[in-house]
Amino acid sequence: MTTAAQADAKVYPPSAEISARAHVDAKKYGEMYTASINDPVAFWGEQGKRVDWIKPYTQVKDVSYDLGSVGINWYADGTLNVSANCLDRHLNTRGDQTAIIWEPDDPNEPAQHITYAELHRRTCRMANILVSMGVRKGDRVVIYLPMIPEAAYAMLACARIGAIHSIVFAGFSPDALAARVNGCDAKVLITADEAPRGGRKTPLKSNADAALLHCKDTVKCLVVKRTNGQTTWIDGRDYDYNEMALEADDYCAPAEMDAEDPLFILYTSGSTGQPKGVVHTTGGYLVYAAMTHEITFDYHEGDVYWCTADVGWVTGHSYIVYGPLANGATTLMFEGVPTYPDASRFWQVCEKHKVNQFYTAPTALRALMGQGNEWVEKCDLSDLRTLGTVGEPINPEAWNWYNDVVGGGRCPIVDTWWQTETGGHLMTPLPGAHAMKPGSAMKPFFGIQPVVLDPQSGVEIDGNGVEGVLCIKDSWPGQMRTVWGDHERFEKTYFSDYKGYYFTGDGCRRDEDGDYWITGRVDDVINVSGHRMGTAEVESALVAHAAVAEAAVVGYPHDIKGQGIYCYVTLMNDREPSDELVKELRTWVRTEIGPIASPDVIQWAPGLPKTRSGKIMRRILRKIAENDFGSLGDTSTLADPSVVDNLIENRASK
Ligand code: WTA
């Protein structure tokens, strides 16, 4: 896999035809960008009108990045309801238009077309069910569902009554689920009997049962029927969604929320400790999600838009549910995987539903690229207009394949760089405004001021052809507001290393033309198949096993996943390495965190390279994992330099 930096950067300017139809062309981008930086209050004051307010705002922005008093407020004196913006305001003009196309895992099962009117009714019923279970404004609801329409109903129902949702990806284990239920002290957990994916079924309800053993007795469980699979049932704790929905009222009045009331919590991995609950609020988030959805994808009225992410990740929040529905779009929700029943599934779904905008992750493209072009070529993809990628850097081979084979050279590719914390896209080329370079996120979105800092001094590096850590000056409406229950951790993680900036955790290069290239994380966060993971999480899972004395985990380049998980494990004195133990540890980590954290390589390490003060030198472990022994750097500060030779000798040959 070549990295973007190694490839000579070919430039693809936007075609005149695309620029002419786009919401934003080069000239307009220049004007709007300048306006957004020169007078953010006027700019965002105007953009705020994209959504309907119950009480209009008079204040636009009130932000401080000062350590000790970090506070981020947008539209603070306005009130609104997100579900009313995604549903009610469309009823007069597009009640009969499809809001959600649902494509099930099994292609033989019929797809569903859910109109805005139907989505409104379903959401209201779900909201009334939650109210009847005792959920009130400000309460937390954890959602652990497959990619089924009920996931969207549940999100919108929470938003409707002012409850704060926290979605847990259905691939997470019972332990991870329990930690998230307890982390936000949830009142209700919404789950389903089973989650079909790629022809297999994940037993969500029994995972939920296992998780709830570690939660307060008062947590109630609302269960959606998906497969009719057998589940155990605890009367008084478990509630039958399908039965209750038959009785529930079709209307529930939307709650009037302050712009800065929390909309959702989403746990994400950081460089230290356990995942943190990223908090997004109501007004600014919705404005930013709606605006980026429209402009980045150049979405037009009547388009069919498909984002293949899961609602368990931020991409699903902003770009399957909130952004598209706020814009009155038809958004496709896919339950399955790209390779089931075969490698043409994505493209068959595009053909079947005449998809216009398609948004996916590089890891999926790399996996499909390896299966050959015939899977794409047998499908009619003539409706595709904009292609997008997200989650990790895209290598030029995958970019070229996406552009040539999937897009037929006609479709601009928006390489969107952003994070759970940012709520929406921060950098991306815009279809009608910018040239594209394979692997580059190109240009900042409106209001975004990226800066490249010297990692040591923290000083801004001006000019082009420079590299450093990526920070953002000033705020934007979609920015996270705090870490749930731990504002201090919020300040420390994002605002303490480089004073006066939001620190992204990513490295970046600004090339000779002033275009941006994300070079990857500069902290101990790795990106496995587009899933973000803290190496510390995998380490703490490993050391929780009785055989493990110590563990150090690093990422290493992986052809399909982007990065793989490489674990160095020191065993307890009385334990011997064996293939069985490797298998056992893999299963152990899958149980502790979930299948997405499954170690790719486990190398036995009699010792780990540590400084005299006991700090593990991860730089060295990364190089060994990369098979790059020539540039280990200075090892003389190690307490015992000989451990390095041992690790090199025994580097797992996988
Ligand atoms: C990485 C996903 C390169 C980056 C929306 C970031 C990317 C982390 C890109 C956030 C991209 C995301 N090019 N790298 N287009 N998009 N990343 O929170 O390292 O799951 O910090 O949000 O993914 O991952 P998260």
Automatic annotation (TrEMBL):
CDD domains: ACS. InterPro entries: Ac_CoA_lig, ACAS_N, AMP-bd_C, AMP-bd_C_sf, AMP-binding_CS, AMP-dep_synth/lig_dom, ANL_N_sf. Acetylated. Deacetylation by the SIR2-homolog deacetylase activates the enzyme. Residues 88-475 form the AMP-dependent synthetase/ligase domain. One of its GO terms (cellular component) is cytosol. Mg(2+) binds at residues 543, 545, 548. CoA binds at residues 197-200, 315, 529, 590. It comes from the Bacteria. Its EC number is 6.2.1.1. Residues 537-615 form the AMP-binding enzyme C-terminal domain. One of its GO terms (molecular function) is metal ion binding. It catalyses: acetate + ATP + CoA = acetyl-CoA + AMP + diphosphate. The modification N6-acetyllysine is found at residue 615. One of its GO terms (biological process) is acetyl-CoA biosynthetic process from acetate. ATP binds at residues 391-393, 415-420, 506, 521, 532. Keywords: Acetylation, ATP-binding, Ligase, Magnesium, Metal-binding, Nucleotide-binding. Belongs to the ATP-dependent AMP-binding enzyme family. Catalyzes the conversion of acetate into acetyl-CoA (AcCoA), an essential intermediate at the junction of anabolic and catabolic pathways. AcsA undergoes a two-step reaction. In the first half reaction, AcsA combines acetate with ATP to form acetyl-adenylate (AcAMP) intermediate. In the second half reaction, it can then transfer the acetyl group from AcAMP to the sulfhydryl group of CoA, forming the product AcCoA. This is Acetyl-coenzyme A synthetase. The gene is acsA.
